[in-house]
Design brief:
Length: 985
Amino acid sequence: MRRWLSVLLALFLLAGSLALNAPAAHAGSLGVGYDIGLGFLGAYNTDVDGRQAYCADLDADSPFAQTYGPETVTSLDSLSRQQLAELNYVLDRWGQSGDPNMTSAVALYVWSVTSAGTYNSHGMSGDIYYVGRAPASERGTILANLAAMRQEAAVYAVTDPSLTLSLDMADQYAGTLTVATHPAGLTGTATLSDAVFADGSTVRQIGAGAHPITGTPTDGVPSYKIGASMNIAAAGYGAALDLYVTPGAQRLIAAVAGSSTGLSASASSPVIELDFQPEITTQVASRYVAEGDAFVDGLTVAVTKGTWIHLDGAPIEVTATGTLYGPFDEQPTESDAPPAGAPIAGVESVTLTGAGSYTSPGTITAPESGFYTWVWAIDKAAHGEQAKYLTDSFTDRFGQVAETSVVPFQPVAVSEADQRLAVPGDALTDTITVSSSNGAWLKKDGAYIPVVFAGTAYQVPGTLPPAQNTVIDSDAVPLGTVTVTADGPDVYTSPSVVAPSGGFVTWVWEVKKVSQPEWVRDYLAADWQDEYGINVETTSVRWPITATSLMREYNVHPGGRAFDVITVSGFPANHGDFTGDGYWNADIDELRHTVYGPFATDSELTDDLDLAAAPVLTKLTTPARNGVYKLGYTDDDKIVPTEPGFYVLVTTFEGDDRVQPYASSPADVLERFYVPPTGSEVPVTVVTQATPEALVGEPFSDTALVQGTKIPEGAYLVFRAYGPHPAEAGALCESPFYVSDEIPVTQAGIYPSGTTTVSEPGNVFWVETLYGADGDVIAEGTCGAPGETTVITEQPDELLVKTNAVPTVVLGEPAHDVATVTGTVPEGARLVFEAYRQQSGEALCTAEKLVFSSAVIDLDGPGEYTSDEVIFDEVGTYYWVETVIDKDGLILHRGLCGAPDETTAVTPVPETPDEPGTPGELAQTGADGNWWPLGLAGGLIAAATGGVLLFGRRLAIARERDGYVREEDEAFEEFKAQFEGAKEE
């Protein structure tokens, strides 16, 4: 009945409202639940806002009439705030469910709180009583749901939900957003300004806790603030309910809905003052910088913290200071700071206005060799009011390779020839003191950088010392190039170069970058070469001279006169003219000829004779120049022995800076004469002298001096040669390989053996035998006797050329040059002779002076080669120069202009001389007075054939020079006439 009355009342009120144009009414209706006839259990539809609500009054009528609301209330009857909070929690979590078992449990929960008295007034548990309105099959589920709701509400429901935010900054950029909620499980949307979360976002769903953030200020700003805000829906939390009222009926309640349930909070940081940290890396513009050039460094500036700060729209200026340390002799070791006392080459600064690339000003120039390394720094304290914007000072590391430039060093050498004076064949060396001329000699990995110095020994053209010059004489002949690897500044001795036949040799040293190991080249500043012709770098290879002589007779009576003809060769053509230059001494223009005697026996005349203690008959001098000198032919130089005995003439030359000292041997049989006691006879003896040494393939011979006042008629000489034998085998004379012809001996005199050659090295032993007409032996030498051994040596490896030009010709007569080639001759080598006319005291062999070139001569090995004949068309002096070239045209040897034995003097055609007379006061001999022309003839023939060379060397063809030989023309013609007369007889 009450239900129907309520319906009727509602209809009545509805009709009234329509009649009065009142607002539309919303009546409650049954929602999700159960109605099995025992009463409804579940949710009601409010029809106000589409939500489900629950009856709060068990004893009131159902809310099917006009329903008003909802109104959010924070108190309801006598319920506690906690009860309100728990109701709000349960209604929010499960109140809008579409499951009748869930809505039935919510209805039971609400009644048990809002109508607790009525709910439990039936003598049993209200839960059991009212769950009976649900089907029996669902009651267990409903009660289980109810129990869960009560348990959870008791734990999670809160009366006053809350949200707070706080921002804490660890530094200018790193911070933490701390979120505090009540209850703790609340989550919501947080938004940051000028900052990001760890994932890079500015908006993020988060809950309670500390959340890392990073500030993201606008580039260039000097300061900024970080802001944070957060919203949480927080539905179902708090001591509040939404209340729906139906007049005269049950009140309906639901969880607080809509935005009214949300929580929000915000926070901001204090103003954060910003700074930034610029850092610098550099790379030198050039690893290698020449002395005098600028050091330039390339700077790359980066900001490692913050951004470059701008004030009033302009970037602040930061000063970077670069200190260039150096020089160091090697790459400095990288370190945090320069070593104490490190040298400083200069300081530069660069104004920085942002990240990017910069270039140093280049005001520091390279003063000397060394390694120079940059260290760049930013001093915060030096920036005044703007220092606060710099995080800190900055200094890069010392000794970085990328920040180091190298100024190459210039290796140079000062040298001095180790031999001021030398002789042909000597080993010539040079001592060089090497250093760096522009600073330190650089190192790599702790060791000096090695430098290869090349030294070339040049044979100076001509026979005079070289003139110092920066340019090498184009006519200088390189004798050899040696190298010295200098492992730092020090004193080094070069490998040797073999001294040539004579003349001046000067060293020129150089350093070429291209000749160095590739890794060394960049460390060297430039090529270097010292000057040509420096006096202390020059050696005089003194010319050897030869003086061969022949006494006109051997036996001289007491009071008689001896006569000698001496042929001198080997002097430079201009010897006697050089007056010195301050370093090289002037020529000594004097040959001394001393006649020693008398000696009781000729056995005293040996190489070991003590000349200082020997008796002296007379001393004579001649100019120290090439030529033929006749001694004893004038009263000024007469040789008159007064006592019987043996005499010998010794020719000596003191030696000077261009020519070796020389002394003929006291044992020379060609320089002896004998004064027998009055009325005595000289027994027949034979003294021999063999060529002491020769090369394989080179001719050599023996010479015999036959002595005695009565030579048996029909006597003859035979020479025998044995060997060659090894030196250690001793003297062996078993089977001769050479036997001379029978040489008639008619009187005392000199007799040559004739020449022979051998093809192997070793010792050759000579034995001479003088036979009578009947074949009986008158005198015979012994095997291995002193002076009777010729030592044969191998041809040298080095190609050597010795030349002898025809010394004198009359205008219109032919002249030629002869080259004796020894050593290894390369296949395809060729020889050319040239002759140059001289018109001054200086030796000049230039193209303008060339008057003759021979045909090209192919060299087929060691031997003697003769040029074409040439007839010079003018009186004067001509210098010969021989050149050997290989098959490719490379010069292997070139003679010196003005070398000894390479001069031909062309003399005018002589007038017909008067009939020659006899030398004034000729010597009285121990024979019949007519023997000596024949002896002289034999001697001259021997000289002409080369058989009487002193020590086995071929006689140098005598050179004649005007004024060198006293009374030469007349005396020689007189001598010649006597010789011709002897031949006719």
